[in-house]
Design brief:
Number of strands: 25
CATH topology of one domain: Ubiquitin-like (UB roll)
Radius of gyration: 26 Å
Number of helices: 19
Strand order of the largest sheet: 9-8-12-10-11
Strand content: 15-25%
CATH architecture of one domain: Roll
């Protein structure tokens, strides 16, 4: 029994939306029983809660409470802050209490449509049960005869196969059609170079400009360049010349040396002679009336299945079904990871896989500024994340600038930030994977971002670096990026082989908060590339905290950073370790 009332702070962490914190009074005379405490909490929050709570111990580890004894131990240890989550729709009542991971009633199979409905160059297309293994590129060329879209590297690296994908929202984005699964274009309008114009009729202004400007020699890469520029002008009718140049980080040309291409398309920039002459392909009238429904396609020959759920419950249901069917579960948004996976593991396997497309679950695509910072759903694309960060303060703009160095505009336009994190996590946990040096992990860790995840069906909230080491079945729900403190200094760096579209050799992030006297109040230093994982440089952080910003502190921090690198697992590339260490020190 409690001899006096106990005041505890409880943070309610919903799957989506704002976190809610309340001070809850556990009345005097109440037994130290877990069920009794949860009844008080449920009355306070006015909703059913999951059958556990968590708290952080003195070392920062997450401790879970599910029993009377665990609660008694926490209260005895003076723990007064707990985190709880709402009850899952898949939880069920047993003897007056809720239990997780209980079987839920699956959505009836008949409610999942097997018809793919989309448009190509204004023409309506309906396909029944297309194979999940077919790419949009292969279908355009082999089934529609639209061979103006060329086959290049097949991994999203050259931009030759670029087409414009007009999303159901009306936004046009450039994509690598070699990476896009045909199944994932439902409700969209696909536009390729033949949809713009041809010499048989009338050339589109972009096609005419690149031809007249000698921007096409062998012509093999030209359709990709045209469609990338088309997508840019659909988004921004009067871009600056700098924006035009930056937009082509995902297109290669082996003939022209790029200058005539840039000159040709630069004429469409603000103030150019072609500015305002762009012509849009009209949206098909039926797009506005397209109904978003759950989709399910299957290929019996390969064992591949494609699901497009529209609710969180459906995600959980099809995940459980796939696991029971002994299928590998693969969550996807842009499916861009297949372009690099063959370099990370020798033999990537996609047969007997259930692909679960998260793009049409509304909660996964939400973004907003809330009480605790910028909240972003897991299906939000990297490009969209960049655009929204650019609207924030100087720290957010610094994060955006770094994220622009990830892959290319075609990849960033459809790849989700959460997919990038999970690829890094997979490479860290699997022995047969080479490490994926994620710039997103580095930036989010530098920003003190937290992520909401489902771990074996249980909701949790944690830091980004903790997620990288978390085993088991994990679904990322969202992330919260806090606003930087008023007196913060934030800087990130990336050393790579090329200026664009290249993994980091070394990447580095620092987030320092200063006192009025210019001493360091707090320090976060994140390092990647110089070690086998992205890591927090703990010794370096300790060398900075409570120290003045002077030369002596810098020397001590350099020594500490070298010690952090030496104490961590190496990349195995001994001949380059000295270079990587000196690069990291140079960033500091």
């Amino acid at each position: 029994m409690w001899k006096s009332s106990i005041h505890v702070k409880v943070l309610l962490v919903p799957f989506f939306g704002e976190d809610v914190e309340e001070t809850v009074v556990l009345p005097k005379g109440t037994a130290t029983r877990w069920s009794e405490m949860m009844s008080v909490l449920q009355d306070s929050f006015k909703q059913l809660l999951s059958s556990y709570a968590t708290y952080l111990d003195e070392e920062g580890a997450v401790i879970t409470i599910t029993t009377d004894a665990e609660l008694q131990e926490a209260l005895t240890s003076k723990v007064r802050s707990f985190t709880v989550s709402p009850q899952l729709s898949s939880e069920r009542q047993v003897d007056g209490w809720q239990y997780l991971n209980s079987p839920s009633q699956e959505v009836e199979h008949q409610s999942w449509s097997n018809e793919l409905h989309f448009w190509v160059n204004g023409e309506e297309v309906r396909l029944t049960n297309p194979s999940p293994s077919i790419t949009l590129l292969d279908w355009l060329r082999e089934s529609k005869g639209l061979t103006g879209t060329h086959v290049g590297c097949g991994e999203g690296g050259c931009g030759i196969c670029t087409v414009a994908l007009v999303l159901p929202s009306g936004e046009a984005v450039p994509i690598n059609s070699c990476l896009r699964r045909l199944c994932a274009v439902d409700g969209c309008h696909v536009v390729n170079t033949q949809g713009l114009g041809s010499v048989k009729g009338e050339l589109h202004p972009l096609q005419k400009a690149i031809a007249d400007g000698n921007g096409s020699q062998c012509g093999f890469c030209t359709p990709g360049w045209v469609m990338n520029m088309y997508s840019l002008l659909e988004k921004n009718a009067t871009p600056s010349k700098e924006v035009v140049e930056q937009n082509f980080d995902g297109n290669l040309c082996r003939c022209t040396g790029y200058r005539p291409i840039l000159d040709s398309f630069g004429d469409f920039a603000e103030g150019g002679k072609c500015c305002g002459s762009h012509k849009s392909v009209p949206l098909p009238s039926g797009m506005q009336d397209h109904e978003v429904t759950p989709l399910h396609f299957t290929d019996v020959a390969t064992g591949e299945e494609y699901y497009r759920p529209v609710t969180v419950t459906q995600i959980m249901d099809v995940s459980k079904k796939a696991s029971r069917d002994n299928k590998q579960v693969r969550y996807m948004c842009g499916n861009t990871a297949v372009g690099v996976e063959k370099y990370l593991t020798k033999d990537p396997q996609y047969a007997n896989t259930a692909f679960i497309d998260l793009n049409f679950v509304a909660e996964f695509s939400e973004s907003r500024v809330g009480q605790f910072g910028f909240h972003v759903g897991s299906a939000v694309s990297i490009e969209s994340l960049i655009s929204q960060l650019e609207q924030g303060d100087d720290a957010f703009k610094a994060y955006a600038d770094h994220l622009k160095r990830i892959a290319s505009v075609q990849i960033r336009s459809v790849a989700s930030w959460a997919g990038n994190l999970m690829l890094c996590r997979e490479s860290a946990l699997k022995k047969d994977f080479s490490y994926f040096p994620s710039d997103l992990v580095l930036v989010l860790a530098t920003a003190h971002a937290s992520v909401k995840v489902l771990v074996e069906g249980r909701p949790r909230i944690m830091g980004v670096l903790d997620l990288m080491q978390l085993p088991g079945s994990v679904v990322v729900l969202s992330a919260t990026i806090p606003q930087a403190c008023k007196h913060s200094f934030v800087k990130t760096y990336k050393m790579m082989k090329r200026h664009v579209f290249s993994h980091a050799i070394v990447n580095f992030g620092a987030n320092l908060t200063l006192n009025p006297d210019r001493t360091v109040r707090s320090a976060t230093v994140i390092l990647g590339g110089a070690t086998s994982t992205i890591m927090a440089a703990g010794r370096t952080e300790m060398a900075l905290v409570h120290k003045p910003m002077n030369e002596a502190t810098l020397i001590a921090a350099i020594t500490a950073l070298e010690s952090d690198i030496d104490a961590s697992p190496s990349t195995g590339e001994l001949d380059s370790m000295a270079y990587k260490k000196s690069t990291a020190v140079g960033f500091l």
